[in-house]
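Input.
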Amino acid sequence: MKRMGLIFRSKANKALDRAEDPRETLDYSYQKQLELLQKVRRGVADVATSRKRLELQLTQLQQQSAKYEDQGRKALSLGREDLAREALTRRANMQSQITDLETQYQALQGEEEKLTLASQRLQAKVDAFRTKKETIKATYTAAQAQTRIAESFSGISEEMGDVGLAIQRAEDKTAQMQARAGAIDELLASGALDDASGLGRKDDIEAELERVAGGTDVELELARMKAELSGPSAGPAAIEQGKPQQPEAHPQQDTPRINYNK
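Output.
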């Protein structure tokens, strides 16, 4: 069971890591700090309100105490010592209340100063966290964009590799088809392979005529070369017959003899 629980927690942590967006986490933390700062400010405002209320009460008591003192003096000036004693007694009781309020006022004032200082420090921390948060978010966004670009280039490279293989296969197949077509043409020309369509196919008579015509051309060319070598006396008939023409025979004339005995 412990192993299953460990496996479940590890898989859950991996799933949470994939689902978690650091920018959202930073924004959530910043929001919590703002709420805490708001609570501290609200506490400072409450303490300041209480201090102000004590300050108003203290002011009223001090005014009333001063009034009792004036009444005592006036009563003594009028010869009413009893009234003066009553006024001074009330002033003494009120003075005790004033002392208690002053003590509370000073405590609230000290508390307010502490909370104000804490609020200022917390405000500075929140401001610093906000700056850091925005920096981290910008860095994360840039890294995420770079990762996506790199993945896109990787995908493009893989696709280009596939395209290159496809082109290579197409070129190989084209070369194979061209070689096959050339081989078929050669077989058809040599007669080793019959042309099913009948186009370009020659029978044996036509082939023999072409062979004889080709041989005649060779004989004529050979006769022409022999005529050129034998001289200008060769006639065109010899060229046509394939042999040089013999020179015509002329009757031999008697050559006069010179008698040297005379």
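The chain has five helices and no strands.
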